[in-house]
Amino acid sequence: MTRIGADVKFSGGSSLLGADPLAALDAVAGLGFEGILVRTVDEAFPELDQGAIGAFAEAARERGMFVQLGLGKVNPYMTAELPRVRDLGGGSYLAGMERLIRLCAEHGWTEAWTATGGFKAYPGLLCFDRFRTDVDWDDQLAATRDFLLALAPVLREYGVRLNLETHEEITTFEILRLIDQVGPDVLGVCLDPANLPVRGEPIGPAVARVAPYTHMTHLRDAVLAEAEQGLSRFLMPIGRGMTDWPRLLGTLLAVQPEIDLVIEGVGGTRAEMSLLPDDPRWWPAHPDMTRSDLEELRSLAADAGLRPGLDELRRCGPDLRAFLGESLAELRALLETLASEGERTPCPNPTS
Predict the structure, then answer these.
(1) pLDDT digits (tens, 9 = 90+) for 29-45
(2) How many beta carbons lie within 10 A of that of residue 77, not counting itself?
(3) CATH numeric code, 4-339
(4) Are 77 and 84 within 8 A, CB to CB?
(5) Domain boundaries, the chain
């Protein structure tokens, strides 16, 4: 049966769910989750203390919980934003990542999270690393490919795979090209469906593209709203947004039936992100996007119906524990419905 975990980010060794990794594990278990994704392991265990990591691993085993780790980001043009990883490598970001890979292997945590950028509090398109003005996005992708190729021998040696999140700065088409260049044995996908519209991708077709390579998830829902200069995306608990969850889960589980699912919660904000197709920089930066993709997203915003309006979405941020709890209950119900429907569907007759 599919297990469900929660994503936890740490800062200075603590998180919103607990003052240390063990406390966060207890909190996640208390909410009813069966696993945890420690996304910022360099902050959760700043010195990679073997005793503390061993105690955490043992506590997870005792509770029957799965563990996944986030190993820092892989775009060399923004790794300076993660000095902890470079510290772990004694001044080498590559060596720091290699230490984290060995840590994963030591405890059998073989699927690891990563990403190619990070959201910034800058105006307009400049909040996305894709639109940096000091380096083209194509050059960032090339540098990311080269860095991943440098990591590939260690990943293969230790049997660990990095999974690129469908993050707000990268498209599924670009992730798939990186997988083709680096190898699906060491590079996969962490599916975050709520980010897909930010890059102009309707959720259903994008999920179908990446499902065969998806080994991790960051599940949460989203809504689109018409805003001043385009569309805005806001995060919602699972089942409260525009995502067709039966379609998404059916597509994913058809090819990855054993995958552990992880929910990424949000607290105090709905993480508004803008789509700005009228900006002259937009279309040249999205060569794989079509006009019909954008029209589908516009129609979703226009059909929001009884969902909160723009002002309310900007004003009301959810409580993290409530977001996680509501999402967990809804995801479990969806999985139970899918399972029961699967049991009622007769198997095809192989002789027919």
Answers:
(1) 999 999 999 999 999 99
(2) 17
(3) 3.20.20.150
(4) no
(5) 4-339
